[in-house]
Write a structure and sequence with these properties.
By secondary structure, the chain is α+β, with helices and mostly antiparallel strands. It has 3 helices and 9 strands.
Amino acid sequence: MKLPVYVYGCPILRKIAENIDKDYPKLKEFLDDMWETMYYADGVGLAAPQVGKSVRVIVIDGNAFAENDPSMEGFKITLINAKIISREGEEWAFQEGCLSVPGIHEDVYRPSKIRIQYYDENWQFHDEEFDGKKARIIQHEYDHLEGNLFVDKIPFLRKRLLNGKLNAISKGKAETTYKIKLPK
């Protein structure tokens, strides 16, 4: 089922998400809905707070980048209860966008390498390192679990220039191909 995507201004996007356990109600169904929503909206990643659940669940499919970056081929991952252990390497800029901030794309600087611990959809524990675009996508989605958005990482002056667009998004004045949920 396609879920509505919560957009800029929705309080849930600013909450720190909670860990879940193996008994989380209808987890498989929820993951299926997240994947369907992400694909329908042409996203490469989606975090649970973006669909109204303040839990530490992320789905990512980086195959859209594979044509220009062969290392992204087959990069499809579910992260449950993720915790970034370390971030290192030179920070580099990449233009990011977000389903919760439709129509805005900005350069964001992030470290090039991360180490992260998480459980997959089968509750297998992982302790892995990622770099490049994989690390970037994970950090972007992980920020959602911590109540942060990519626009929080752009320079203050640039964000001020975007305030009008951000306020418009929070009022539903954004064009999307997917259903959105506005702040109350």
